[in-house]
Amino acid sequence: MKSKVFLLVIGLAVIFSIGTFAITVVTLGGWVSSPVEQQAMENVVKAFNQKYAGQIELQYQPIPGDYLVKLTSELSAGTAPDIFYLDSSYAQQFIRSGAIYPLDYFVQKYNFPVSDFATSLLQPFEYNGHIYGFPKDFSTLALFYNKALFDKYNVPYPTNNWTWQDMLNVAQKLNHHKDGVYGLSLSPNALDRVMPFIFQNGGEVVNSQMQPELESPQAIRAIQFYFDLHNKYHVAIQPSDVGAGWNGDAFGRGKVAMIMEGPWAYSFLKETYPQINFGMTVMPMEKARATMIYTVCYAMSRSTPDKDAAWKVMEFLLNDGMKVFTEKLGVIPTRISVQQSENIFNNPADEVFVDQVNYGHAWFIPTANGNSSKLLDNINNELYNIWQGKVTTQQAVDYIVNNWNTWASQQ
Amino acid sequence: MKRAKEWIAGYLLILPIIAIIGTFIIYPIVASVYYSFTNYNPLRQMEYKNTFNLQDQLEQYLLVFNMKDLNTRYLLSQFDPVDFIQTQLGIKIDTSQKSTIEKYFDSKKLIDDFVTMKTNERINGTELFSRYMTKDKNMFAGYIPAWVGFQNFSHMINDNLFWTTLWNSVFFAIVVTPIQTFLALILAVAVNQKIKGIKFFKLSFYIPSVTSSAAISMLFMLLYSKPGLINRILGFIGIPPINWLSNTSTALPAVMAMNIWTTAGYFMIVFFAGLQNIPRDLIEASELDGAIGWTRFWKIIMPLMRPQISYVVTLGLIGTLQVFDQIYFLIQNQQNYTTAMYIYVNAFNYNQMGYASAIAVFFLAFIMILTLIQRRFVKEENYF
Predict the structure, then answer these.
(1) With CB atoms counted within 10 Å of each terminal CB, which end of chain B scores lower, N or C?
(2) Would you call B46 and A76 a contact, using CB atoms and an 8 Å cutoff?
(3) Which residues of A touch B86 (CB under 8 A)?
(4) Phi, psi of A25 (to 5 degrees)
(5) For testing the chain A interface, which of B324, B334, B344 should be mutated: the one with the most A CBs within 10 Å?
(6) Are residues A27 and A80 in the same domain?
(7) CB crowding B295-319: b at 16 or more within 10 Å, else e
(8) Is A302 an 8 Å CB contact of chain B?
(9) Neighbours of A165 (CB within 10 A)
(10) pLDDT tens digits for chain B (384 residues)?
């Protein structure tokens, strides 16, 4: 009896292992920002598995917790998913280390339409003329305004050709400390939120030699204006001042009249604060129009056993997957063809975010070795010192520029 | 013979603990000392170990879409071994490895094997080099972090932020350790009284130290927030609300207060056990001599508690210098990091394992020296 059971187990194991050998398994990993997103991704995975039944099996393994730390340790142990998300701000760190597989061959072999992507969206994922990832979707920053607060204090709504001065004037009219209402909520320690102002004023953050350009009068004036909103005009607060975790939260609580956030804030507000009546428009301008572009790509691990199968997954994600994500989550598709296909925008507000892509700047700071996390942490820390009034803008910029190469160059 | 047997049996009995300590304590310490002299990048750990189908890799590198009618000479002209290894296989090579490859890599053999489909199998980087290098194969056995000597340490000395974090750690320790020790002693004396309902107090003093650090941090995040309870209470006496954790001047003291609250209860147990050990007749004798109240506390209890005080101060000092979890949860600004947090950030966010190891090694030595000095001052004398 016992030996029969044993034989059965062996037999089943053999059949099972033959089964798994015949079907290539590809794993997909990424962070999950909302249950809706996870469900959308599960649907995409199901659709893929139906299409490639018997050939490729796609397994979705979301990575919870601290994504960057988990991904680093999984890549070093060779246990990372075959395909995973990579954010533009730190993609180069991984690309340069050799952990990401270049995709040029597949592009040629399968005639993948690279020109369907805006060049500013591909730039963070290129190195040495090779492409290491294709963006899944992108976001830009826009100006959100609370219509109820504007009506209450009888202030006209923002227009799409507002200047900084217009924004400041209106913010001053909306600022009612006694009612607990403030003009703006700003991120006090984030270079990516100050950067649009620098670009709007005709400044630059880094030049083509990867050296800082923050000491130019245009850049200084922009940084000065951003922090003056808090330090001098007292019209801006940081989210934690009203007990909020981030700008969108502060806005949702009705404590601030304006914020500058991306499409994630739109879905957050609709879900968490449905009673808030708000509008959206493009970022204010000064000498030029500018906004930030945040994008995330699908990248392929070097440890992927069957890279051809993994590419098929990636192509599916960038095609059918992108359409599902656009419909279900309201994210902005990176492919121009998907953007233009009909009925893709179920919310008209998306237009504000898409319209700005032409003058948007991709969020990443190029450095000689691709490692920018340390540089950014140090810059953000110094920016927060301006916010707290511990240093002047000029002092902070001098400090940042003097230390830039030390922070950027290590390893 | 018998001695040898005993000897073997003894070592067999302690083998499990030696294995555990060796794997999880001794090896990591030795490894981090080694890494502190290198530029170890964990992301490169797999570069020689990743397996690939060599045929596929060559097809992809040479952009061959069809295996028919291949021209070996043309392929050879298109093949650059250094570029193939770096870009296609993702193996980084230094200048000496580069010149070795240029000299001894047998590109012709590889291309011949490719055309005749002999490369159609899964191998890893090490195997590739052992097959196609005519000489110096051992230079490509695996990823070896480059030796940088004292570069990490000299960088550390010039890193302002490192000194800020070290000062934060020391500040944390010199404020928290005495207060938590004293508070724990007071609490122990208090719960040593015979009052009704003392169990309730014992429990409530001890609960913070058995609660998860994450849960306590979340609780204090709410308490310390600008519209939080602490600011409301302060509001009654006319103090304007403070953003305790965002403000770089108040963030660290706020975490210190919380740390004292969580650890005092834990050390209270140590003192409580010590108090139980003080002979009853000694207390009675001192009472007859007129030592009551504070006199008894300072002149009788304190000296008798010296071994426990020494133990608590040593553990407290080490614990506060290494504080990480509460900092990780609550501290928002880099300038409020403690050294332990800074090590973590360098290792896992900046991918600078070598530099992080250098700080860790320095910090280990620093804590060791501080502990030795402290043990000089608080001698562990036994009165019994």
Answers:
(1) N
(2) yes
(3) 98
(4) -100, 130
(5) B334
(6) yes
(7) ebeeebbeebbbbbbbbbbbbbbbb
(8) yes
(9) 11
(10) 778 889 999 999 999 999 999 999 999 999 999 999 998 988 888 888 888 889 888 888 888 887 777 888 888 888 999 989 988 888 888 888 899 998 898 888 899 888 888 888 888 889 999 889 888 888 888 888 889 999 999 999 988 899 999 999 999 999 999 999 999 998 998 888 888 888 888 888 889 888 888 899 999 999 998 888 999 999 898 888 888 988 889 999 999 999 999 999 899 999 999 988 888 888 888 888 887 778 888 888 888 888 888 889 889 999 999 899 999 999 988 889 999 999 999 998 888 899 999 999 999 999 999 888 887 776 655 544
CB–CB contact A76 B42 (8 Å): yes
Compute the distance between CA of residue B91 and CA of residue B83 in angstroms, rounded to an integer. Answer: 10
- Find the Cα–Cα–Cα–Cα dihedral A256, A262, A268, A273, rounded to 10°: 30
Please report the sign of the dihedral spanned by the C-alpha atoms of residue A396, residue A399, residue A404, residue A410: negative
Per the CB < 8 Å rule, is A243 touching B60? no
Nearest neighbour of A68 by CB, restricted to B41, B92, B349: B349
Instruction: List the single residue in B with minimal CA-CA distance to A383.
Output: B333
What average pLDDT does chain A have? 88
Give yes or no: residues A113 and A60 share one domain.
Answer: yes
CB contact at 8 A, B221 and B141: no
The whole-model pTM stands at 0.86
Please state the domain count of chain A: 2
Question: How many residues are listed for chain A in this entry?
Answer: 411
- Asked if A394 is an interface residue toward chain B (Cβ–Cβ < 8 A), one would say no
**Within a domain: A9:** no
Beta-strand pair A142-146/A130-131: unpaired
Cβ-contact A238, A251 below 8 angstroms: no
Q: Is residue A199 part of a domain?
A: yes
CA-based end-to-end distance of chain A = 64
Mean pLDDT across the stretch A261-269? Answer: 86
What is the Cα–Cα distance from B226 to B244, expressed in whole angstroms? 7
Of A130, A238, A303, the CB nearest to B246: A238
Per the CB < 8 Å rule, is A384 touching B61?
no
Residue A11 predicted with pLDDT over 70? no
Q: Decide if A389 touches B, using CB distance below 8 A.
A: no
CA–CA distance from A275 to each of A262, B45, B355 (Å)?
19, 51, 50
Domain span holding position A279: 142-289+366-409
Nearest beta carbon to residue B60 from set A69, A73, A105: A105
Note whether A281 and A189 are same-domain residues: yes
The β-bridge relationship of strands A142-146 and A256-261 is: antiparallel
Set out the domains of chain B in order of their start, with CATH numbers: 2-35 (no CATH), 51-140 (no CATH), 153-377 (1.10.3720.10)
pLDDT of residue A168 exceeding 70: yes
Chain A closest-CA separation from residue B225 CA (Å):
6
Query: Which CATH number characterizes residue A245's domain?
Result: 3.40.190.10
**3-class SS at A14?**
helix
pLDDT category at A397 given cuts 50, 70, 90 is: very high
Taking CB atoms and an 8 Å cutoff, what residues of chain A touch B41?
A: 97, 411
Query: What does the alpha-carbon distance between residue A370 and residue A366 come to, in Å, rounded to a whole number?
Result: 6
The nearest CA of chain B is from the CA of A59 a distance in Å of 21
CB contact A391 to B (< 8 Å):
no
Contacts of A94 in chain B (CB under 8 A): 43
| A302, B143 Cβ separation under 8 angstroms | no
Q: Cα(B76)–Cα(B93) distance, rounded to whole angstroms? A: 21
Size of the A and B interface in Cβ pairs below 8 Å: 117
Asked if B227 and A77 come within 8 Å (Cβ–Cβ), the reply is no
A108 in reach of chain B (CB within 8 A):
yes
